[in-house]
Amino acid sequence: MSIGNSPEDERPFEDERVEADREEARPSIGRVLQQARIAAGLTVDDVSSATRVRMNIVHAIEADDFTPCGGDVYARGHIRTLAKAVGLDPAPLLAQYGDEHGGGPAPTPAAPLFEAERIRPERRGPNWTAAMVAAIVAVIGFVGFTMFQGDDSGNEANVAEGSTPSDSASPTTKTKKPADPQPEPSDSAIAAAPQDKVTVRVAAADGRSWIAAKDHNGRMIFDGVLKQGDSKTFQDSSKVHLVLGDAGAIDLFVNGKKIEENFQPGSVERLTYTKGDPEAG
């Protein structure tokens, strides 16, 4: 009677050796993917661009290192994506991954959940709401700045074009306040006025007024606002052209003589004086 093992007892060990040899003969997942990529004439960069799987993850999987994938779910997803990119059926590779790493393929969400899908964010359209808000703020700022700058200069420009300044826009009649009388020019002052020139003196007796003065050639001599109590004197060889923004606030002297005109408050007057005046031209 033999005490050795029977042929039937030896068979399980032979089956295990055959299975081990088969496992050694089967190429790894990374090797299969790499050979298929090379056969397809693709580079790692080509595959990464096509699948949106980062290049370092493609290199790691082809080296059978699935650690950078971040877990079995993502590893299976990357294997499936890369296999399709190089023209392989992913099912055998996924089965091999399950045999080598344990457990069956877990239910996986759609590809957008993979880390690779988050590498390149989707382009968003322009934020029209923010653009509109910025445009409105810019317009408000520009209007405010223009109103601030144009408080004086805008009114002066309107008067120059023949419109009524904002200070005098109200239809109510301005009541003149008693003011210190302007000293009448003396006989010596009249005599001192050059006879060969026209001399015009403008005094803001009852309030501020915009004044423009030009010589006989139309050249601007003065363009500005006289505050109450201020005065300006203009001379020319033959003519002085005036525009008074608020004529009712002005006292006017031509060639040393006061012009007695009943100018209304807020009225705009255009006047021309020569050497033979005082007479409104």
Low-confidence regions: 108-119, 156-172, 181-191
Major beta sheet, specifics? 4 strands, antiparallel
- What's the total number of strands? 8
Give me the strand/helix succession.
Answer: HHHHHHHHEEEEEEEE
Brief descriptors of the model:
single chain; 281 residues; alpha+beta; 4-stranded antiparallel β-sheet; 8 strands; 16% strand
How would you summarize the topology of this molecule?
Blueprint: H1 7-25, H2 29-39, H3 44-51, H4 55-62, H5 72-85, H6 90-101, H7 128-160, H8 187-192, E1 198-204, E2 209-214, E3 220-226, E4 231-236, E5 239-244, E6 250-254, E7 257-258, E8 269-274
Antiparallel strand pairs: 1-4, 1-6, 2-3, 2-5, 5-8, 6-7
Helix pairs in contact: 2-5, 5-6
Commentary on this structure:
This protein is an alpha+beta fold and 281 residues long. It is 40% helix and 16% strand. The chain contains 8 helices and 8 strands; from the N terminus they run ααααααααββββββββ. It has a 4-stranded antiparallel sheet, with no helix packed on it. β2 and β3 (220-226) form a beta hairpin. α2 runs parallel beside α5 and α5 (72-85) runs antiparallel to α6.
